[in-house]
Amino acid sequence: MEKVKTAVVGCGMISNIYIKNLKNLFSIIDLVAVADIDPAAAKEKAECYGVSRVMTVDEAAASPDVELVINLTPAYVHYGVIKKMLEAGKHVWTEKVMTVTVNEARELCALAERKGLYLGVAPDTVLGAGIQTARRALDTGMIGEITSGLAVINRNQSLNAEVFTFLRGKGGTLPYDVGIYYIGALLCLLGPVKSVKAFGAPAPAHEPQFLFRNAGAEPWQIPGCGVLSASLRFRCGALVSVLFDGNTVNASQHTLTLFGTRGILKVGDPDTFGGRNTLLYADQQECALPFTHGYDGSNTLYPTPFDFYGHRGVGAAEMAYAIRQGRPNRCGREYGLHCLEVLEGMERSASAGETVELDTRFAMKPLKPGYYSSFMGGLSRADAELSLKD
After folding, report:
1. Which of 131, 158, 211, 347 has the largest count of CB atoms under 10 Å?
2. Could you give the dihedral angle defined by the CA atoms of residues 229, 234, 239 and 245, in that order, rounded to the nearest 10 degrees?
3. Sheet strands (E) in the chain
4. Selection from 112, 180, 127 nearest residue 151 by Cα
5. Within 10 A of 390 (CB to CB), how many other CB atoms are there?
6. Cβ-count burial of 101 within 10 angstroms (0-12 exposed, 13-18 middle, 19+ buried)?
7. φ and ψ at 44, to 5 degrees?
8. For residue 179, what pLDDT band results from cuts at 50, 70 and 90?
């Protein structure tokens, strides 16, 4: 199968694990170039990871050698970058979220469809061993019909924005930056949401605390809701309570639990690829589920900084196979648009004090089970990439 010639646009922190994985883990990808608005940043990544070419963003769009663009820029510039690449005839995989508004995302989806191009959207942690194992448990009826669920995550997002300054812009609140992993996991497991009812509170004005980074800086306020508390009614009938609190402290308390007519499934951390799932039945002890899939987040062969980001890029690789096989990709534009509509619907509901009905839909097939990331105690790669081929 012919490799897909690929360029990474955006050479910030998350690019380390993407570039490493695209170079070493996925035989379908031929990483030919990196690009950034800062040429020095692109040059540094190219030299560090052995990428042959450094381009400007415009050069990546114009290059006949680039078929797929991996967009790793901040969320508030996604719209412009994705539109440029689609108009240039490139398939695009973008980090979460697709854009910062549903209207912009709809426009990009329509553009991709009109031009016959693929548009894939993170989070692709939903293709990791943890969430795919949870999906397998649900699909085989291990906890029966899902009646309800609970999803919770907290952080001090304003403090985090001192170090990761891109969080100060639109799309930087906790629901969009981290909550999206929980929404993505819920959608992968339960399907589309029908309606949303929510309450919210704004992010606070933040006084700088890290003097070595922000000496003399003025206070800032991340635009949007710092706290969102919502009820989601899924089309499958499940009712899920969601709490995203970015106005508290950096002592994360992550919860994703699904309650069913036969049992309870505690889903592993959806912000990772290898979150462990546990199963609870009536009058029995809680037990851990073994992984049924690969991409568990372990990167032991080529250790580099930011390995804790796991198997970032698996969604792009799965999309590359979809391009070659002429089929829909799993983390496709409909999935990304619905993720964003859920988040925006929560904010709209909190603002208007009304239930918001959602109109987008999506479908996501599970990956094939029985393929794993490694063997021989993690000393060698196994055949997980085969699960990305239909």
Report:
1. 131
2. -20
3. 4-9, 29-35, 53-55, 68-71, 91-94, 119-121, 146-154, 193-202, 225-234, 239-245, 255-260, 264-266, 278-280, 287-288, 356-357, 374-375, 380-381
4. 180
5. 13
6. middle
7. -60, -45
8. very high
The whole-angstrom separation of Cα 52 and Cα 358 is 45
- Residue 164's contacts (CB-CB under 8 Å, 6 or more residues apart) are 13
pLDDT at 301 over 60: no
Distance CA 299, CA 83 (A): 33
Burial class (CB in 10 A: 0-12, 13-18, 19+), 327: exposed
Give 8-36 as a DSSP string. EE--STTHHHHHHHHHHT-TTEEEEEEE-
Q: Report residue 186 as tokens.
A: 């819920």
Tokens of 311: 């198997």
For 217-253, what is each residue's pLDDT tens digit? Answer: 788 899 999 999 999 999 999 999 999 999 999 999 9
Tokens of 340: 């964003």
The domains of the chain, with CATH numbers, are: 4-124+311-329+362-375 (3.40.50.720), 126-298 (3.30.360.10)
Cα–Cα distance, 17 to 369 (Å, whole number): 25
For the stretch 267-292, what's the b/e string if a residue is b when 16 or more beta carbons lie within 10 angstroms of its beta carbon?
Answer: bbbbbbbbbbbebeeeeeeeeebebb
- Whether the Cβ atoms of residue 223 and residue 169 lie closer than 8 Å to each other: yes
Report the half-sphere exposure of 277 (CA within 13 A, side-chain side): 30
Spatial distance between the Cα atoms of 217 and 195, rounded to a whole number of angstroms: 41
250 Cβ contact partners less than 8 Å away, ≥ 6 residues apart: 155, 156, 159, 160
